[in-house]
Amino acid sequence: TVLTAADVDALHKAGGRLLVSPNIDADVMDRAMHHGMVTMPGVFTPTEAFQAIRLGASALKFFPASVLGSSGIAAIRAVLPATTLIGAVGGVSDKDFAGYKAVGVSVFGLGSSLYKPGASVEDVSQRARAAVAAWDEAFGGQ
C-alpha cells in the first residue's frame, strides 16, 4: 500500500512495478507516472473514479468493496469508460468472485479472507487453494 510520493520512490527503487493505494493522490500518481508504474488507486465514488482516470490510473480499486457491493460497483461502472479495469478490495472473499465478475470486476484483493492473526500456514494454504479454485470456476481458469 502506497500513501506518499516517497513511498512510490521506495517501491520503484525496490523494483516494484505495481502501485496499489487506498485513495487517489495527485502527487502519488504523478510520481508513479514518472517511473512508468502500473497504478491502481482506491476509489469509492464516481467523482474519485473519474479523477483517478484523469490522472492516468491503470485500473481502479473499489475500496471497501464490501460496502459498495456488486450492485454499487455496477452502478458506478455503468458511467465509466468501457475499457476501465476494475478491482474489488476490502471485505471481499472467494465466495464473491462470480457476483463481482457479473458486474465487470476482474481484479481482487483478498486480505482477511485469506489470513487471520494466529492462522497456521496450513490454514492460509487451504484458504489460498480455495480462492484459486473459486477464481478458476468464476473465470474459467483465465
* Counted beta strands: 5
Outline type: globular
CATH superfamily: Aldolase class I
The structure class reads alpha/beta
Average predicted confidence as pLDDT: 95
- Which architecture per CATH? Alpha-Beta Barrel
CATH class: Alpha Beta
Percentage of residues assigned to helices: 40-55%
Account of the protein in words:
This protein is of the alpha/beta class and 142 residues long. The protein has a single domain, classed as TIM Barrel (Alpha-Beta Barrel). The protein is built from six helices and five strands. It has helices at 5-13, 26-35, 46-54, 65-77, 97-101, 121-139; strands at residues 18-21, 38-43, 60-62, 86-89, 105-109. A five-stranded parallel sheet has the order 1-2-3-4-5. Helix 1 packs parallel to helix 2 (26-35). It is globular, with a radius of gyration of 16 Å. The protein starts with a helix and ends with a helix. The model has no long low-confidence stretch (mean pLDDT 95).
Key words describing this protein structure:
single chain, 142 residues, alpha/beta, TIM Barrel, five-stranded parallel sheet, globular
Short description:
With 142 residues, the protein is an alpha/beta fold.
Question: What's the layout of helices and strands?
Answer:
Elements lengths: L4 H9 L4 E4 L4 H10 L2 E6 L2 H9 L5 E3 L2 H13 L8 E4 L7 H5 L3 E5 L11 H19 L3
Parallel strand pairs: 1-2, 2-3, 3-4, 4-5
Helix pairs in contact: 1-2
